[in-house]
């Protein structure tokens, strides 16, 4: 029975990945800071990268679905024997590199350093690493973009956007990302590669939000505002508790963030679904049992 060590197994991507590994007969040791329920074939360890519990001496695969920079640091110093590493980064590594916001540039820089660190350590150990960069994630009711939009829209009964929010997006479902991580584990062509993992449909930001609002009950209306009015609404929302939306993010609503999935389709049959949201995708779902 193959044994996987999964970091971030309780996260949006981590949960469906655990389900997939269990269904395919893998034994799993998963790790996160918050305690989780164990089940047959799945052992949970509790710890932070800065203070990890004792880990298995040897596993067949390590998958990182948590913070990439912390994982890269840990992997660089770890003694564990393992030939196969799969780690999630983000397309933010490119998108935020030239941001006007220094915090976003820092995110991009840490992602870049994490990617380089994982590849360099794997090369030193003659292990095979693959890096996966998702675009905007949805589907688990826990993402910071579409689920947050859905919750705010339900609270307000409407959702404001600036009038020119036409930058194209490729939202990607968490189950498609879990499927991708599982597929690359068995794909030699993916060794040493980095893949963008966009969703299966490219659509304007406004259309993406409209589809989310349309599945809510009752459906909130989309209110398109001239930019100055939208900025005022944003400032008011920040005062009332915050939306998590920065100026750089608002500017990006006009920018296309489009990535090519041809290499992923070619190498491991990546076939992400079109963006067809349902209300349930914006409700939190916690149980692994539900997914297995
Ligand atoms: N969300 C997005 O839209 C998005 C987009 C592109 C790429 N990504 C990347 O995809 C990966 C997975 O994202 P996600 O949204 O599925 O993540 P998530 O839901 O936030 O889950 C993160 C996981 O990592 C664990 N974790 C966080 N900090 C940790 C620490 N210091 N030590 C040990 N475990 C820690 C969390 O569990 P505990 O909190 O219990 O520790 C959880 O299991 C990440 O690398 C993320 O950067 C995300």
Structural features, described:
The protein has 292 residues and is an alpha/beta fold. Helices cover 38% and strands 18% of the residues. It contains 11 helices and 13 strands. It has helices at 14-23, 68-77, 92-95, 102-124, 146-156, 174-185, 205-214, 227-239, 247-252, 262-268, 288-291; strands at residues 3-7, 27-32, 42-46, 61-64, 84-88, 128-134, 137-138, 158-162, 168-169, 172-173, 194-197, 203-204, 221-225. Strands 3-2-1-4-5-6-11 form a 7-stranded parallel sheet, sandwiched between helices. The chain has a two-stranded parallel ribbon with strand order 7-10. A two-stranded parallel ribbon has the order 8-13. α1 (14-23) links the parallel β1 and β2. α1 packs across α6 and α2 (68-77) packs parallel to α4 (102-124). The two termini are 18 Å apart. 38% of the residues are buried. The model has no long low-confidence stretch (mean pLDDT 93). Bound molecules: NADP nicotinamide-adenine-dinucleotide phosphate. NADP nicotinamide-adenine-dinucleotide phosphate binds at residues 7-14, 32-34, 48-49, 65-68, 70, 88, 90, 134, 136-137, 142-143.
Give a brief rundown of this model.
By secondary structure, this protein is of the alpha/beta class.
Notable traits:
292 residues, 13 strands, alpha/beta, seven-stranded parallel beta sheet, binds NADP nicotinamide-adenine-dinucleotide phosphate, two-stranded parallel ribbon
Ligand roster: NADP nicotinamide-adenine-dinucleotide phosphate
On the 0 to 100 scale, the average pLDDT is 93
Summing up helix and strand content along with how strands pair, one would put the structural category as alpha/beta
Number of strands: 13
InterPro entries: ComplexI_NDUFA9_subunit, Epimerase_deHydtase, NAD(P)-bd_dom_sf
Domain NAD-dependent epimerase/dehydratase: 4-63, 112-195
Pfam family, one: Epimerase
Protein name: Nucleoside-diphosphate-sugar epimerase
